[in-house]
Amino acid sequence: MEIKYFDSHCHIQFKNFDQDREKIIEQMRVNEVGGVVVGVDRLSSEKAISLATHYTHLYAAVGLHPNSVEQEPFDIEVYRTLATHPRVVGIGECGLDYYRTVKINDEVKQAQRTLLSAHIDLAAKLDKPLIIHCRPTKGTYDAYSDLIELLKEKKAIYGSAVHGDIHFFVGGASEAEALFSLDFTVSFTAVITFTHEYDAVIRQVPLNCILSETDSPYVSPVTRRYQRNDPMSVKDVVAQIADIRGEDAEKVREALVTNAKRVFRI
Ligand SMILES: [Zn+2]
């Protein structure tokens, strides 16, 4: 099928979709929506691969989310094996979360940094894009500063083998700028359909540095607020990006698919 929309970050392997997963995947096909099914731990990474093996419009990413590490000790060998599967197009989600963690202190931050560092090493050695979750303390950009510092260190070691996407971007224009110069794109969810907080960044950044995503089952668009989200809402995200930028919807749609294909090498 031709891919007309690309959801760079969804979790349709989660149990939220156990009742109608096949139907959702078929709807994606009919609507020409492709997507990356992103793992947050070992089991969800394995499920992502399984889906990507069965459906040509689905791809997989494997990783251990910073908020999953309490339930699952990180075993790099497990992820190394998963990451070499031919349907795996990205490493993640991995990253830094200073927002949701109940207790955030230097020790927790250091542990998250170590975990993220291992993911970056793995991605660089396999030359696969990283899918990074980065959530700062409310009202700050602290996690972005730490992320950018770590990526610069890694870039000095691995060069162009360090690249990827910063998912659910909530940083400012200068963070975005720093990330682009490190070969990263930023992606936006349907959160942009009900808040104008990110409009300025979306207007400022180059179109070729943006990806579309849904992060479903989370953050439904304004038309379906508080309901379970699904990858079809990537259409709302693309339309909203075009609207905010004041650009032709078809031009933006095409560019966002091209960007995703470039980043995930599909
Ligand atoms: Zn996610």
Topology of helices and strands:
Blueprint: E1 5-10, H1 21-30, E2 33-38, H2 42-54, E3 58-62, H3 76-83, E4 88-97, H4 106-126, E5 130-135, H5 142-158, E6 164-167, H6 173-181, E7 184-188, H7 199-204, E8 210-212, H8 234-245, H9 249-264
Bound molecules: zinc ion.
Provide the list of bound ligands, each named once.
zinc ion
At the first level of CATH, what is the class? Alpha Beta
Note the main sheet: 8 strands, parallel
**Helix content, binned percent:** 40-55%
Short note summarizing the structure:
With 266 residues, the chain is an alpha/beta fold. Helix content is 42%, strand content 17%.
Report on this model:
The chain is an alpha/beta fold and 266 residues long. It has one domain: Alpha-Beta Barrel (TIM Barrel). Helices cover 42% and strands 17% of the residues. It contains nine helices and eight strands. The chain has an eight-stranded parallel sheet. α6 (173-181) links the parallel β6 (164-167) and β7 (184-188). The longest helix has 21 residues, at 106-126. The radius of gyration is 17 Å and the shape is globular. The mean pLDDT is 96. The structure holds zinc ion (ZN). The site of zinc ion has 5 residues, from loops.
